[in-house]
């Protein structure tokens, strides 16, 4: 179906045989902007890893629309910042799906990387080593990498965790820009106010521990789509 970015069909996901969520049926429309919310441990990151193809479903199907380029930004805590690289190298990695890891960058590529650094307010940071960036600067650099990836489907896991309000405003602006360009964006958030004021669609995950009795009785968890949008 051309209007489908992601389809969950009786999807169960988790680790090994240990299910975190079961029986999910849902369609994420192309061009939609969705916040994924839920309590700690409800399975938000696990859902992102499954959509990104890092985790295989335990059962059922998680299908990405045909020919969709995907960009996945995990939580910062999952990243190794001691890697000896400069900011510009990290952002340039966004080109690898098109150029390969050792492929030559063209003049246009270098311009795209510089433009992405400028778009996130990191103009003077190209040659700064990653381990010298603050948390907010690192998140800006990671968004610049997503910008360079030019993906159709963008998955962001808690992108505003421990980030200053000025950086949140810059990154939210980028998300709005991507949405206006027709890209599909799914963002894990724990800040419900932020989700309700900036995200037109909200997926609320109810983990196994807090499943509604009727749903639990049927052995299914609840994936609620709540109406959101600017208050
Ligand atoms: N690598 C792993 N192996 C086994 N179990 C895991 C693994 N990662 C997470 N879990 C478990 O899966 C469940 C869901 O975790 P997940 O990180 O997806 O939740 P979350 O909603 O993103 O939580 P938070 O809001 O705290 O980030 C939790 O019970 C967690 O302990």
UniProtKB/TrEMBL annotation:
Q: What is this protein called?
A: Zinc ABC transporter ATP-binding protein AztA
Known SMART domains for this protein? AAA
UniProt cross-references to Gene3D superfamilies, sorted A to Z: P-loop containing nucleotide triphosphate hydrolases
Homology family = Belongs to the ABC transporter superfamily.
Q: Which UniProt keywords apply?
A: ATP-binding, Ion transport, Nucleotide-binding, Transport, Zinc, Zinc transport
**SUPFAM superfamilies xref list:** P-loop containing nucleoside triphosphate hydrolases
The record ties this protein, via InterPro entries, to: AAA+_ATPase (IPR003593), ABC_transporter-like_ATP-bd (IPR003439), ABC_transporter-like_CS (IPR017871), AztA-like (IPR047748), Metal_Ion_Import_ABC (IPR050153), P-loop_NTPase (IPR027417)
- Which residues does UniProt assign to the signal peptide? none
Task: Please name the PROSITE patterns in this protein's record.
Answer: ABC_TRANSPORTER_1, ABC_TRANSPORTER_2
Can you give the residue ranges of the ABC transporter domain?
A: 6-231
Name the domain of life this protein comes from: Bacteria
- A GO molecular-function term, please? ATP binding
């Amino acid at each position: 179906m051309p209007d489908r970015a992601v389809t969950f069909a009786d999807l169960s996901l988790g680790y090994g045989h240990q299910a975190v969520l079961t029986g999910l049926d849902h369609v994420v429309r192309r061009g939609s902007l969705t916040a994924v919310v839920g309590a700690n441990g409800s399975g938000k990151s696990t859902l992102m890893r499954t959509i990104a193809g890092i985790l295989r479903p335990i059962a059922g199907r998680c299908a990405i629309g045909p020919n969709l380029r995907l960009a996945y930004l995990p939580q910062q805590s999952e990243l190794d910042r001691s890697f000896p690289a400069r900011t510009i190298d990290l952002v340039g990695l966004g080109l690898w799906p098109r150029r390969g890891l050792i492929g030559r960058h063209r003049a246009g590529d270098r311009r795209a990387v510089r433009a992405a650094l400028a778009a996130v307010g990191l103009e003077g940071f190209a040659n700064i080593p990653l381990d010298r960036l603050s948390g907010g600067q690192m998140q800006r650099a990671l968004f610049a990498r997503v910008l360079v990836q030019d993906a159709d489907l963008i998955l962001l896991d808690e992108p505003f965790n421990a980030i200053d309000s000025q950086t949140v405003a810059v990154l939210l602006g980028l998300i709005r820009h991507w949405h206006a360009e027709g890209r599909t964006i799914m963002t894990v958030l724990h800040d419900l106010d932020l989700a309700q004021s900036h995200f037109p669609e909200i997926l609320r995950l109810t983990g196994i521990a807090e499943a509604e009795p009727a749903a639990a009785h049927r052995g299914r968890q609840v994936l609620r789509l709540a109406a959101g949008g600017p208050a």
